[in-house]
TrEMBL record:
<dbReference type="InterPro" id="IPR001602">
    <property type="entry name" value="UPF0047_YjbQ-like"/>
</dbReference>
<dbReference type="Pfam" id="PF01894">
    <property type="entry name" value="YjbQ"/>
</dbReference>
<dbReference type="InterPro" id="IPR035917">
    <property type="entry name" value="YjbQ-like_sf"/>
</dbReference>
<protein>
    <submittedName>
        <fullName>YjbQ family protein</fullName>
    </submittedName>
</protein>
<comment type="similarity">
    <text>Belongs to the UPF0047 family.</text>
</comment>
Amino acid sequence: MNLFEHQISTREAQQMAKVTDMIRQDVAKSGVKEGIVIVYSPHTTAGFTINENADPDVVHDMLCGLEEAFPTRREYYQHMEGNSHAHIKTSYVGPSQTVLLHEGELVLGIWQDVYFCEFDGPRNRRFYVKVMEG
């Protein structure tokens, strides 16, 4: 079975953590050479994105942009846990990403990485990687 589970501990209230190398290890273990890879977060306040890996300011700017668009505090939020912003941000970026797999390698651009996006940390999280042949 080519389903892999990972544990990740986030340190910040909101952060983006590169997980591309973890995914590459799963691909190698699977032995699949051609297909797709799906990364999935089973959390309603954490998701995934694919974006630039060369300049750490991009991650900073993305988190700031998401905070500006969906602020942590709004007077009209009614969710009693106080994390409505995290639910909205996760719905915006999505709980999963799909990456093509060719010749045993992830098909990513030279400047791309896969990021786990935490919007309600710090927390101990898990995520799944499914490697599918095809």
